[in-house]
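Question: Send over one sample?
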Amino acid sequence: MTVLTHAFTPGPIVASGPVKLTLMAPVARFSLRLRATNIPAVSKAIGVDMATTVGVRAANGTTESICLGPDEWLIIAKPDDAETVTKACADVYSSATHSLTEVSAREVTVRIEGERASELLTIGCPRDIDSIPVGGGCRTVIDGVTVVLWRDAEQSFRMDIWRSFALHIIDLLCTGCKEFAAE
């Protein structure tokens, strides 16, 4: 796993009002590409029955995956499990070729929750947030920045943001929270 001095400190960003923003602790994060015929072997190796429908998530314990495209998944796990995921995939590589790239340091995750969380996400996002089912997710854009949005509950989301764009997106979300507070 890549070790990076974390420039972002996990914890509350906005703690009051109709939406709360929290910077989440770092996770082990992997980009996985593979052909459909190799999904069963890799799923078994990492212990998660990976979905084959774009936007559908799967989890087993603290390891979670989301299908982002017909041959692309994002896998997250506890940082301590990064080596386990890497080894499991390496062990099946000869019979189930794939590309597993650790991208843990590439992104930060912000939790967005509260009674107006889905409304806040409409700031700069062309996607119909209400069409994302609870337990689903998607790759989308916020103010022109590509993000991965995980919907954990009706008004609870996680947003994975590339580190280089994180301050911009967090600032945009904070501005939206201030606008809600001013109403």
